[in-house]
Amino acid sequence: MNQLQATQPHFVRCTVPNSLKKPGKLDIPLVLDQLRCNGVLEGIRIARLGYLNRLPFAEFRQRYEVLTPGVIPRGYMDGRKASTKMIDSLDLDPAIYEIGTSKVFFKAGVLADLEEKRDAHLFDVFSWFQADARMFSARRQMRKVLNRNNAIYTLLFPSCDSSDYDCDCDCEFEARED
What we know:
Protein name: Myosin motor domain-containing protein
Keywords: Actin-binding, ATP-binding, Coiled coil, Motor protein, Myosin, Nucleotide-binding
GO molecular function: actin filament binding; ATP binding; microfilament motor activity
CATH class of the largest domain: Alpha Beta
Order of helices and strands: HHHEHHEEH
Domain Myosin motor: 1-119
Structural class: mainly alpha
Family: Belongs to the TRAFAC class myosin-kinesin ATPase superfamily. Myosin family.
Number of domains: 2
Radius of gyration: 33 Å
CATH topology of the largest domain: Alpha-Beta Plaits
Distance between the termini: 83 Å
CATH architecture of the largest domain: 2-Layer Sandwich
Low-confidence stretches: none
C-alpha cells in the first residue's frame, strides 16, 4: 500500500470483452474478473478513499506561489516549510490535504479549485499589465500629436513665443471651428 501511495501510475488496461471475440457482446463477469485480477478495482477503491492529487513541494511552490504573495521570504526555504506556509495562508481545511515528506497530497477537487484561483489571479495581473501598456502607448501617441501640433503652430506663427493658441500677441491667429 505504501508503494502504491508513493507512485502515480499511468497505464492503459486492455480487457477482453467476451470469450467469443465477437463485437457488440459484453460478458460482464469476465470483464469484472479481469479488472479484479489486474488490481484496477482495488486502485479505484483506494483512490476514492484517499488523496487523488499529489504534487512535489517544488512544483507546488512554483505553481501556486502567486496566490500567496509575501508569505515566503526571498532566498532559500525548505520545500516542506514553504508549502506549509503557503497552505496556511490559503486557509485550506486540514481535512482536504496532507503534507508528506516530499509531496503535498490533495483530495479530489482541491487542486482544481486552486487552479481556478490561480487562473483568475493571473488573468487580473495580465489585464492590469495590458491596460498599463495600452496607457503608455496612448500617452506616447498623444505626446507625438501635441509635439506636431506645436511644431505646426511654431511654423505658422514664428514671432509668437506662446505654446497655446490664446496668445495676446499680434500674430493674428484665429482658431478654425469645424
